[in-house]
């Protein structure tokens, strides 16, 4: 039976691959399987359940089988919309950013093609058969509300907006209301 390894040859191969050395350097850069580095938090007895967190990392307890906690749900969307018989109009949201030649051709600015670099939110709402005089528009920092005899639309905005720097334009030929909303984000000073 040439070519087969016996017990002694297998044992010698095992010692060659993983030698039993008591002077192993535990501080090398290679990860050690099955070992864990100990730190100051490991002093004392190990508790069975250490999943208690406090502050912003605390677990949110929902009611029953709820998948969302009430603090995670925006209150901007009114539940009375379900009882409102008016039609929800067709709308479209687009993000807009102001770029210069340095941004487009040279890549010198900090702007990216993503929505994080956009300054404006454009919302086009189609209200066929409606007159401009019958439309009521309310813009808050976190939602918009459009009401007319036929239509009702209440939308939470994806980011906070500045109602004072926003504008609305009515296109009578297509019965479309175009809203241009100025976005407010906490990193605007860094991005622009």
UniProtKB/TrEMBL annotation:
Residues 89-182 form the PIH1D1/2/3 CS-like domain. One of its GO terms (biological process) is axonemal dynein complex assembly. One of its GO terms (cellular component) is cytoplasm. Pfam families: PIH1_CS. GO terms for molecular function: dynein intermediate chain binding; protein-folding chaperone binding. PANTHER family: DYNEIN AXONEMAL ASSEMBLY FACTOR 6, TWISTER. Belongs to the PIH1 family. This is PIH1D1/2/3 CS-like domain-containing protein. It comes from Microctonus hyperodae (Parasitoid wasp).
């Amino acid at each position: 039976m040439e070519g087969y390894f016996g017990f002694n040859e297998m044992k010698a191969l095992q010692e060659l691959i993983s030698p039993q050395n008591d002077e192993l350097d535990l501080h090398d850069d290679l990860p050690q399987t099955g070992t864990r580095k100990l730190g100051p938090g490991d002093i004392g007895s190990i508790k069975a359940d250490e999943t208690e967190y406090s502050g912003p990392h605390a677990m949110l307890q929902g009611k029953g089988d709820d998948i969302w906690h009430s603090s995670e749900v925006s209150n901007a969307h009114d539940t009375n919309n379900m009882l409102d018989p008016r039609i929800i109009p067709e709308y479209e949201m687009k993000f807009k950013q102001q770029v210069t030649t340095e941004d487009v051709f040279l890549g010198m600015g900090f702007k990216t093609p993503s929505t994080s670099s956009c300054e404006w939110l454009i919302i086009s709402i189609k209200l066929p058969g409606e007159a401009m005089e019958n439309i009521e528009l309310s813009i808050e920092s976190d939602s918009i509300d459009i009401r007319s005899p036929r239509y009702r639309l209440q939308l939470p905005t994806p980011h906070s907006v500045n109602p004072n720097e926003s504008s609305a334009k009515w296109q009578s030929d297509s019965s479309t209301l175009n809203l241009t909303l100025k976005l407010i984000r906490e990193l605007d000073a860094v991005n622009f």
